[in-house]
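Thread: Modeling a multi-component assembly for a lab meeting

Hi all, long-time lurker, first post. My supervisor asked me to bring a structural picture of a complex we are working on to next week's group meeting, and I have zero experience with this. I have the sequence lines for every component (674 residues in total). Could someone generate the structure of the whole assembly? Inputs are pasted exactly as I received them:
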Amino acid sequence: MPATLRDVADLAQVSIRTVSNVVSGYEHVSDRMRERVLHAIEQLDYRPNPVARTLRTGRTGMLALVVPEIDVPYFSELARDVITAAADFGYRVMIDQTGHDHERERELLTGGDRTMLFDGILFSPLVTKAELLDMNSRTSMPLVLLGEHDFDGRYDHVAIDNVRAAHDATRHLIDLGRTRIAAIGAQPQESYSTPQQRTEGYESALREAGIPVEPDYQRPAPHYRRADGYDAARALLSLDPRPDAIFCYSDLLAMGAMRAVFDAGLSVPEDVAIIGIDDIEEGRYSRPTLTTVSLDTPFIAHHAVARIVARIDDPEVAAEEVIAPHQVLVRESTARG
Amino acid sequence: MPATLRDVADLAQVSIRTVSNVVSGYEHVSDRMRERVLHAIEQLDYRPNPVARTLRTGRTGMLALVVPEIDVPYFSELARDVITAAADFGYRVMIDQTGHDHERERELLTGGDRTMLFDGILFSPLVTKAELLDMNSRTSMPLVLLGEHDFDGRYDHVAIDNVRAAHDATRHLIDLGRTRIAAIGAQPQESYSTPQQRTEGYESALREAGIPVEPDYQRPAPHYRRADGYDAARALLSLDPRPDAIFCYSDLLAMGAMRAVFDAGLSVPEDVAIIGIDDIEEGRYSRPTLTTVSLDTPFIAHHAVARIVARIDDPEVAAEEVIAPHQVLVRESTARG
DNA sequence: TTGTAAGCGTTATCAC
DNA sequence: GTGATAACGCTTACAA
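Re: Modeling a multi-component assembly
Sure thing. I ran the full set together rather than chain by chain. Output:
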């Protein structure tokens, strides 16, 4: 049975209040008292019960990071940075996986989930804009959106400029001299905003270069996993004329797409140049290495945590938008012939 | 301000006890009462406070999964399965990252970390056997070890037979006709038990085949990341005679090693055959695809969660050892010429 | 500077 | 079957 404040107080012959003062670092405690208390704490191996403290203070010291799939490299790399950033602010991170389950997302946001042991949510959503809009209005749970962009200032969010990022990626392929530029990653339901924005950037870059937008060259991807990229690329390669470049909305899609190109007996970048988004470590070792749009996840993580902490401390603070920098990293998958 | 049991009781004109009964699904409640209570709950949008409940019951409904690095694919894929398995048992998962920090591991295990908001720990350790032995003895926190094997029945653990797995992997390379078989992944401090066991399996397979164990062919890896595999492989390739096969203690090491082989102007598997351990998804898409020892992570996750739940329910239950099956999956990186 | 006591929102032990 | 009421372990007015 773990020792309590009361036990320590009894042993040290002081009041429970004094023990609490010592434990929580209150200043005005005489040295003799502090000495006695610390000794008793040592002796009993006392540790404060965080749950009791939480019940009293209303703070758990935990953040929830909600992602669709933790084993998607982008999310696990983001999680790593978020855990690190949260530690700097004295918070710990609980990771929740929604598994593309909108219902689960709604539960978390509305608090329909009855086990909310955290102070705030970092949310990398799957939900549509409309869904999200009236979701969190019921709960007062502090919320910061990751990766999304277009929410009219209702929520804190930290994201990249998706339109520009997609535009830059497409532009890079154009500068290579490619003209039949396909894209993988549009979502069947067009209400997901990230894919929508990337499509917008892709199309605008094509138009600016005077290249007609060819609907057949745009393939959806139900999720953003390797298998989805593989399937989509296979379909693209069977077209006539076949694309000479593919812009993938995520690096993982790109990994699958590259494999599909090889399996078709073609080569990257000679036959098909490929670019992704995310800059996951895998792309720095793959063959060929993957050209990508790098996202500065540490930046995203840091600002997201900073925002949520600010909102926890003051729920009334105005919502803020943070745009993380991005940058095209040219590697072998788009190297010039 | 969220509604409490008391508010509901007042509105429904019943006692707080009756409300609690309804909420926690107690059977002996009259229909009229239940009706009234449910109505009030609905009206107030009442949700039980999990912290208060926890303080009373001592259960948080949370498990901690402790891993060195969440962005290492093996761990993120394991995390995914653990989260899924935990959900089946009604638990949620908090992921903690120790970042190769022994001190952090000790903190978590001894509860020196003051925020123990979970009921049990699933621990994929970095610590040495000796360290672990007297670590958890102070706390009574339920603990299940993942991936480790040789702890004399003091702790629950679910793992694979590391010696056999390494033996099988090495044997596979031998059966290919390779004779200069290197290994990457031994740890500088030999007290880590998993690497130790893999080295044991590697060496025994060589000896059985009458192949001398060549110390130069064994390279340590500080961590198990791509960069470590890359560096180790580079060193191996500069040897004379150079190895014609490499057994990597993890798939990620293998990905780095493959890249090093290509950068040296050699090919896999013709010049150097490569096999890993873990069966991460990346290896199913890489070029060449990676031969590996598959670990059945869902099995590991399920049994680990089942054990920890059993131990939470009855702390006195005898420690158990679960050995997960493993299997060599032959792919292109060791295909016959 | 330190002690006393009132909660935080539950669950559980009594009675009735 | 339902109603009071005492914990759970802590923080924090309010007193002394």
